[in-house]
Specification:
The complex is a heterodimer of chains A (799) and B (292). Chain A has 799 residues and is an alpha+beta fold. Chain A is 26% helix and 25% strand. In chain A, a hairpin with a 5-residue loop joins β15 (295-306) and β16 (312-324). In chain B, 31% of the residues lie in helices and 22% in strands. The chains are: A alpha+beta (799), B alpha+beta (292).
Amino acid sequence: MKQPSTGNGPVGRSTLRVDAAEKATGQARFVADLSLPGQLHAFVFRSPHAHARIRAIDTRAALAVEGVWEVVTGAEAPFVIGECIRDHSVLARHKVRFVGEPVAVVLARDPGAAARGAEAVQVEYEELPAALDVSHALAADAPLVHEDLGSYRILPTFHPEPGSNVYHSYRAERGDPDASIAGAAVVHEGTYVYPHLAHVQLEPHGAIAWWRGPADLTLWCSAQSPHTVRKVLAEMFELPLTAVQVIVPYIGGGFGGKSDTTIEPLVAAAARRVIGHPVKLVLSREEMFFGTLLGRGAEVRIRSGHDSDGRFLGAVAELAFACGAYGEYGINVVEGAGHVALGPYNVPAFRVASKAVYTNTPFIGAFRGYGHPEAHWAMERHLDHVAERLGLDPTELRRRNLLRPGDRHVTGQEVETSHGDLRGCLEAAAASLATVDLASPDPERVRGVALCPLMKAPVMATNASSSAFLKLNGDGSVDLVVSGTEMGQGSRTALAQIAAEALEVAVERVSTSRLVDTAVSPYEWQSVGSTTTWKVGQAIRQAAAELIVRLKANAGLRLGVPPEQVGYDGDELWDCQSPARRVRVAEVALNALHPDGHAEGGPVAAFGVFTPSGLTWPDAQGRGRLAAEWTFGCQGAVVEVDRGTGEIRVLKLVTAMDVGRVVNPALARGQVAGAMVQSLGAALMEQVVYGGDGAIRNPSLTDYKIPTAEDLAGVELEVIFLETPFDEGPFGARCLAEHGAVALAPAVANAVRQATGCHLDRMPLTADTVLAALLALDRAEQERSRAATRQGRLEPAGV
Amino acid sequence: MFEPYRYARPRDPREAAALLASEPGAKALAGGTDLLVEMRARNLRPSLVVDLKGIAGLRGISRAGGRVRIGALTTVSDVLSSPRLAGGLAALRDAAAVFGCHEIRNRATVGGNLANASPGAEFSVPLMAFDAEVVVQGSEGPARSLPLGSFLLGPGRTALGPGELVTAVEIPGVDQDLRSAYRRRARTRGMDLASVSLAVVARRAGDPARRQVALSMGAVAGVPPRPAAAEAELSGATLTRERVARAGELLVAGLAPRATSLRATPGYKLAVLPVLLERILCDLGLVEEDGS
């Protein structure tokens, strides 16, 4: 498709987001706000054990609690889900595999009665040894989280290792990395750790399931991907898709934590026992930590060899993810991390293995970056060590290794000029950071700077199709109906801008649907991976072209000329042979009404589709067209470290990103800035902490800290966009959003190293860990100087 | 999910005390920033909630001679904005400034903060160093007063009897020559609980020979400890860097903070307290620079 864009249209403007007023005034409605007549409230009874056999469940006392209607266990609702690997009982059967796993759902007339009922559920467990972290889960004598791994239904591209906890891996190799490393001037090996994180969306996960009959389900939920929820539920209940209607209103933050399914199968399964009664479940803040899915949780070992100039000769990267008790949602994270395990660098010989490992912890899924932040954390920290070993400026080391057009990265895909200007991003970020004075006025505080380049692709199904429906109204306004969900990212606004640009009308003429209803909204694979603007935008452009064709047909009928002879400028249509003969768009939007009263044609509407072109599954060497889009960028940080307390103060953060074309500068900046701040939280303070029993010790905001406005006070935050057009994106736009989360954390850690000399390879960099590292470094230096003094006594001076 | 409970709003302290004594499940409510959190978590399920906010006269800060009295229902925001707590009592404003967030500061009370008896309670730490006294009222008889050090018994435990409530806290010996400051470390610059904290109170601050320095530390023991040896090192003498460093070592000698804290490791607390001490003493202008 050609990319007609005048530069004066709606694309490229900071249009005020269309939902700003209703969100600011509290009129926007979320699932938790909804109630239906006859509604029952659900409370989930959860496992207190990380790994145990269920001996018996007694629900009699719970059923006797006043107000309790029904108690549903795995025996009554024996549903198993998993698209890639069918390993997940919606309600635990026979075994529990993590603390917090649903064992029973109590349904009652009010939330209090449901909670009291849950307290009365009696379960007899036989505790089993648990695999709580990834190294334990990979050990030869590790307890098996799934003994039946070998018998699960899997997709053909899946590689489970029955008899172990490894349920999938992505592997890629090129050349002989061991030989290349053996001949290197500098070899470094290190291990880099990214803990489990929680998404901490503002809105808790909610769902209301209403069975009107045994084959008629309507479900309201806070899910990023309504059509995926529909498919999973239809398969789970063995119903046609038309029997499952999924409605998603506004979502209060997703970050991947509401992609695929979370609580929807559980609520729908429980509600099926009380046909006729809608069942509502809204998770508490605490339950959001163990009752949905977590993110990250990676241990990465890298061994690399470099020549004396710092250029990569070879590298071996082994990534292992603690994916939790069920496998489905971690897969794309593990794959995505494998694809970029070597960063945006040209590595001539390599071996990459990225493993998905079952652990007796809550399962992980997408989290703003799909494995890319984990991989970049590891490689960027690793290169910081290498730069120090070489005595080379860390930025210069990166310059020498950056991917160039024509190079091939891990997936075997070739870098093309149209993928964006990686080097330009690095230099833009470097220039931005150069404005900060690195001399601290306080001798107790030391400053450092670092930058980390990045590459990012959406990780998705090879057939991740999108569609869009446009209908023209009688006044010339346009309804845009899509299934890309609005979760705060601003898609309603950006997609309206793309439609308006394609239709050559003012953005105010286009209204994007406020909610998604799978019964009426067209198909969308998922709203994940920062792909909505790109994929849905492309579908909209096709629909817009079709809409104009149909509009010209009506106008042709009205003007009595063939449609090819009709001109169009967004407001009017005319006879190109006789331009004075014209009609307004509104006049022919619904039909062609002639002066004598007879009418022809009909209402103008159009449908457009998009499927990313040519994606394949990886071959045996891990190669293939695994991504239809790549975005390059560079992130950097300037920090100040208090040597007395270990406290890190961030002075400046920068992101330079080649986004192809900025659709809405304010929203684009908001997305990147939000991702930067979320990553800053991961860098400095966030982590899920487990006790020895496998229970999360900090499932609340009291002890799971995220940055607030006070933490950002005084932080300069710069976002720079480069615009190398992307041929397969709407008006040149490529994916943008979670990209701002990819390489910020290592930039912060590397800046801390530059300031203090301390290498911190495990996130987060709490004041506690920084101070411990500073003290250890001081002790080591004292040791060295004592040793040097002793040495000095033995040897004659002046030698 | 709150369990059902009854609610009473008494008008005077004795009536409140009688209600609190009337049943074992009675709980006092002031700002509610601790009680409601525990009720929501279903850790506390009171049968009767006695709301103290209807009691007149328990909110406000007054001074009589050298004694400053802070009513139990005085909010954290009141402390922050009170001109009476400037100058020598600045440690209380330092504590108020980092307490919770705006919303919590507007609700939480000084009396509630003491009665909740958290080892890292923002006000307990400076008030320990001020030798504050807690005024307690039962349903009968006059109010009694006891030192904060006797009032606090351990995490969540106080000397309050079943039918008693805190009505005020009093600070003795407030004069022109009093200096104080409170500092803490927290994991974020936004809303957080203290990882570790330190209050310094100097009486007769201007005269090194007669100066008395009191110290108190938060989040290192069940009750904020007063390190006598460090206090002695800093009292009655010119404060050189060396002396401050020695006091820093004495400050943490024998401390054994809980290893299971999610907010900071014992090693961090022990390493940072001497740093905080030195910085506070410098900020208060009590450290003699070399050669001066």
